[in-house]
Write a structure and sequence with these properties.
Layout: E1 12-15, E2 43-44, H1 48-52, H2 67-71, E3 77-78, E4 91-93, E5 111-112, E6 121-123, H3 131-146, H4 155-166, E7 170-172, H5 193-211, H6 280-295, H7 299-302, H8 322-325, H9 327-335, E8 342-343, E9 349-350, H10 366-382, H11 393-396, E10 399-403, E11 409-413, E12 425-427, H12 449-460, E13 470-471, E14 478-484, E15 502-512, E16 518-524, H13 528-531, E17 541-547, E18 558-566, H14 568-573, E19 582-589, E20 594-596, E21 601-605
Parallel strand pairs: 5-11, 6-12
Antiparallel strand pairs: 1-18, 2-3, 4-7, 8-9, 10-11, 13-20, 14-19, 15-18, 15-20, 15-21, 16-17, 16-19
Keywords: Copper, Disulfide bond, Metal-binding, Oxidoreductase, Thioether bond
Protein name: Polyphenol oxidase I, chloroplastic-like
Cofactor: Cu(2+)
Length: 607
């Protein structure tokens, strides 16, 4: 469908179309049954005759199963020139005024956000928070829980915000979707993820402070990126506290958190706050954070790609960045109770509540401290690591409305929340950032066994390649041999001080059931029989595809997303150079139910 040079890096697609909720998608009318395969950063133009000839009824086994799509294989590939500006005027909650949709304003229309002028609120690590802060949080949350559900400041209403935005309740009707109805919208799987959650946590914190009359109240954050904080904080484990939630994994309450969840041989190690260890889980966690924070230097890799809805028939809206897909997703799954059951907006039962299912995650108070740490990591990425956020006006002018402590509806834009200091909060970072020095080391001897694997295959002829579409099975690693590498010497310096070109590994068609979630790892130049052991602690690990279970789709419906992994550091650390010409890409399935429709490719990304 796309030319070999296509940079298809942010599709998220619905198969077949019906109202999904998470991840974020733009759908066609429910009455249609169409398989959409367009992406944001590289969309394929269909010939109108192919579309009219019958785009329906494509078999789920692959693109070549339908002549209309096969004909589109030669269509030109174009980049999505701009993302979409999302505003509250383009969003509508289906059950307006009823849970989980927010209540109608008891005062007036939304007012524009103005920067606060009060005292600086210092968010402390939950495991180190002083007794006064913990007691204030208990009192504030007790007051929030005591409010009637109809009050937009109540805990039920606050939890419902997250449910509404990712369980199929919101619909998007921007200009690019003017001919469609019931277009689902979600704040995950695009560049909206980080700023929306920053807004959400900001107003949650403001409401808590307002309920106890303390405008200096600051939400404790779950410091799971520091070894001493790599466990469920004690303040959330008292069954008599308003901070407690019964729907948590009982096997994990006293264990080290696993930031690379769902790997084969997941180890549960009891956590001892008096003797924090440098054990296998801690080392793996620190390396996971290194990959998430240090390798993903560009905004689209760390924050997620643009929310895009420009093309006729598209149902894509971006792909998640490492901030969303790595440690954040693992903590959600780790904390949720696998024995719980909840019914999503799709009418189906889902396990993993509360934290492990996006529709119920906001019902656990630890969710807000978890996302305060996600927000802190974005803050560190942009400040301490000196990375650059997007400067696209479509991102900066995207806006949402939230109730504040009065309660008053407030319209806040992304550009309003880029500076934590301007929002009058900061982070107490007394713990060292040990993940900055946790660079992975090679599993195989650098420059010898790893590179020799590829050179031998080139000399002897390529090994048989797996057939695509490829359905993944846990325990069966799949090697894609001799994936060509464009010479990195072909990179041209960025003009005008822009970002430098980089080498990326692209999977542009990954199909999965959103209600189940899923994960697979990707490693480079490791024999398949050793690949399952090549996790984030090792240089050969390139990254993972991971999604949280979410509702909003009809039973059996699938979506298609993409994965783009920066490769320059991986190749340097395992000793692969331009002279090697190709690498072996090994796919390590961690869950059932994922299909990779097209083989991976390596590209030089110019922006």
């Amino acid at each position: 469908m796309a030319t070999p040079s296509a940079r298809a890096s942010c599709p998220l697609l619905l198969l077949p179309s019906s109202p999904p909720a998470c991840p974020s998608m733009l759908a066609t009318k429910r009455t249609q049954r169409r398989r959409r395969i367009l992406s944001c950063r590289a969309a394929v133009r269909f010939d109108r005759r192919d579309v009219l000839a019958g785009l329906t009824g494509v078999a789920a086994v692959g693109l070549g199963a339908h002549p209309g799509l096969a004909a589109a294989e030669d269509a030109s590939v174009v980049s999505c020139p701009r993302g979409e500006t999302v505003t509250d005027k383009l969003l509508a909650c289906q059950e307006a005024g009823q849970k989980p949709c927010p209540p109608t304003s008891p005062t007036s229309a939304a007012v524009d956000f103005t920067p606060p002028t009060g005292p600086m609120r210092v968010r402390q690590p939950a495991h180190l928070a002083d007794a006064e802060t913990v007691e204030k949080y208990r009192q504030a949350l007790a007051a929030m829980r005591a409010l009637p559900d109809s009050d937009p400041r109540s805990f039920a209403s606050q939890a419902a915000i997250h449910q509404a935005y990712c369980d199929g309740h919101y619909r998007y009707g921007g200009p690019a979707a003017a001919s469609k109805d019931d277009a689902p919208f979600d704040v995950h799987f695009s560049w909206i993820f980080a700023p929306w959650h920053r807004m959400y946590i900001y107003f949650y914190e403001r409401i808590l402070g307002g309920l106890i009359g303390d405008d200096a109240f600051a939400l404790p954050y779950w410091n799971w990126d520091a070894p001493a904080g790599m466990a469920m904080p004690a303040i959330f484990k008292d069954a008599g506290s308003p901070l407690f939630d019964a729907n948590r994994n009982p096997a994990h309450l006293g264990a080290y958190v696993n930031l690379d969840i769902l790997n084969a041989g997941d180890t549960v190690i009891p956590f001892d706050p008096q003797a924090v260890q440098n054990n296998q889980v801690v080392q793996n966690n620190l390396s996971t954070l290194y990959v998430q924070m240090m390798r993903n230097k560009k905004a689209q890799d760390f924050l997620g790609d643009k929310f895009c809805a420009e093309y006729p028939s598209t149902v894509s809206s971006g792909t998640s960045g490492s901030l969303e897909s790595m440690a954040h997703t693992s903590v959600h799954i780790w904390a949720g109770d696998p024995g719980s059951s909840t019914v999503g907006n799709d009418g189906q039962e889902h396990t993993g509540a509360d934290m492990g299912f996006l529709g119920t995650a906001g019902r656990d108070p630890v969710f807000y401290s978890h996302h305060a740490n996600v927000d802190r990591l974005w803050h560190l990425w942009a400040t301490k690591l000196g990375r650059s956020n997007f400067d696209d006006p479509e991102w900066l002018d995207t806006s949402f409305v939230f109730y504040d402590e009065k309660p008053q509806l407030v319209r806040v834009r992304v550009r309003d929340v880029l500076d934590a200091a301007a929002l009058r909060y900061s982070y107490d970072d007394r713990e060292l950032l040990r993940w900055m020095d946790a660079r992975p080391t090679p599993l195989l001897p650098k420059g010898t066994a790893a590179a020799a694997t590829t050179r031998r295959s080139l000399l002897r002829g390529a090994a048989p390649a797996p057939a695509f579409p490829l359905t993944l099975t846990p325990g069966q690693s799949v090697e894609v041999p001799s994936v060509p590498m464009p010479p990195r010497a072909q990179k041209t310096p960025a003009a005008g001080g822009g970002t430098e070109p980089d080498t990326v590994l692209v999977f542009d068609r990954i199909e999965f059931e959103p209600g189940r979630g899923g994960k697979f790892d990707v490693v480079i130049n490791v024999p398949p029989e050793q690949a399952a052991a090549a996790g984030p602690r090792y240089s050969e690990y390139a990254g993972s595809f991971a999604t949280l279970p979410r509702g909003g789709n009809r039973p059996g419906e699938t979506v298609v997303a993409a994965l783009v992994l920066p490769l320059d550091e991986v190749l340097a650390d395992i000793g692969v150079g331009d002279e090697d010409g190709a690498v072996n890409v090994v796919i390590v399935p961690r869950t059932q139910g994922i299909k990779i429709i097209r083989p991976p490719r390596i590209e030089i990304r110019e922006r």
